[in-house]
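lol so apparently i was supposed to do this last week
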Amino acid sequence: MSVGSTTQVVSSDKPLVQLKAKDFKSKVSPDWCAGCGDFGVLTDLQKACAELGLRPHQILTVSGIGCSSNLPGYFNAYGMHTLHGRALAVATGAQMANHELTVIVTGGDGDAYGIGGNHFAHTARRNVDLTYIVMDNQVYGLTTGQMSPTSCEGMKTKSTPFGSIEKPVNPITTAIMNGATFVARGYSADGKQLIELMKQAIQHKGFALIDIFSPCVTFNHDNDYAFFKERIKKLEDEQHDPTDWKAACEKAMVWGETIYTGLFLQIKDRPTLGQQEPVLDQGGPLAHRPLGLSKEQSQRILKRMM
Ligand SMILES: Cc1ncc(C[n+]2csc(CCOP(=O)(O)OP(=O)(O)O)c2C)c(N)n1
Ligand code: SF4
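anyway here it is w/ iron/sulfur cluster bound
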């Protein structure tokens, strides 16, 4: 099967049994604080995968470190909890090794746009076929409330007791400028919109970002549910055209009394990294091919690495 003809989702290969969201729940219950926005993101991802007819063995979730990065442990599929800020690098390797997997990367704004900012830019520009779900709470949750790259100017945190003097990262314009081909923003309290965005992102061929406002009820009292309720407007209600690059940039720059959620940009005709690799385009996933080494050779290599 060629890379070009495969999709992340087995739409024609209908499962014998339609799975439900609960089938994507793991045996481990989240230890997030009551009211944390990440609960909504987890539930909506489980619903989106069920509605797409995916099965756990077809999915790999990869995360970095943070409260939000614990998500793979709560999701019934293959999962990897990697290093802080390194989830995209690991996920790129996994996607290249098995391009038939649906690879979903999850984490927080610190993980994604701070320590992992370099990987974010390069994964977007390479158009790796991944879905990146960033639970953006504008603070470092796990390490108990320091400022993050998306903290607003003036925000008082443990590490900025007099208020942050830095301009925050804009994840949407950053993704667009670096060449991401699917750029969206969701809100953890709006499941209806978020599930649709997740389904579209997973089906998209290329690098798909959904930056999701996911309030940290313990350490960010500025950007809480009331803050977003007052400000959020949906792009779909404004007849925004996601193929219009200029309009996407303009809408992404809006931050104040109005903040937009929805699909800012989608470019469908840019090839993914895998589609441009001739070795991946023939013969199926590398992971399913013979290693090309004798048993002795592979054991010698393994021994050297142990
Ligand atoms: C190399 C390295 N540096 C720093 C840390 C400490 N650390 C763990 S999680 C984290 C930030 C988490 O914030 P975010 O990614 O926004 O996730 P959240 O906990 O808010 O969901 C930091 C700085 C670490 N684990 N590894
Ligand atoms: S500290 Fe914040 S981000 Fe972490 S679980 Fe609690 S509410 Fe969620």
